[in-house]
């Protein structure tokens, strides 16, 4: 049976990286106080400690990419994120010309604004809703990069396991970015082992795609 120290250590690896700051956030602590005040809070806490199933389905957390803004690709002379002016429009339209992105996510609607913006900038974006569809796409073309979720098809690590198989079998060795709702120390460690990047930020995914398009996206250090 795991000791209290082991349990705490495991929990810290799975919590978002910003958790130490969260405990001083009034909104977060108010939420915790509200949960503790619920009539069945003791049963809920007991089930969480024991790892038992919750008594009712819990809606997934709202990931940051649900509000992701389209990439605002500036001309080379401008700063990243600055909206291009009329004179830069042609440059922006051609910025991702020739770039092929394989985007693997079982909820593709979450990424529509980013996907549409990348296509408008000249990229070819192929959507795969599961690992089998991604494998079929890789059998006919080699993308510039893969963007993948992590939790997919009922398996909380399907994205990691799928990229792991591709790496092990040598079917894809290029840039990979995991785009997920949570960035935790555990996920960061696992993605780095796969020579992949991890982010939950819309602006960061834009930056990584631009670097991959320029051939300047090495594995994370």
Automatic annotation (TrEMBL):
Q: Which Gene3D superfamilies match?
A: 3.40.50.2300
Name this protein carries in UniProt: Response regulatory domain-containing protein
Which InterPro entries does the UniProt record give?
CheY-like_superfamily, Sig_transdc_resp-reg_receiver
Sorted keywords for this record are: Phosphoprotein
Q: Cite the Response regulatory domain residue spans from the record.
A: 100-217
Q: Which organism is it from?
A: Streptomyces glebosus
In this chain, where does the modification 4-aspartylphosphate occur?
149
Transmembrane region positions?
none
Does the keyword field hold Chloroplast?
no
What's one Pfam family the UniProt record gives for this protein? Answer: Response_reg
Name one process (GO BP) from the record. phosphorelay signal transduction system
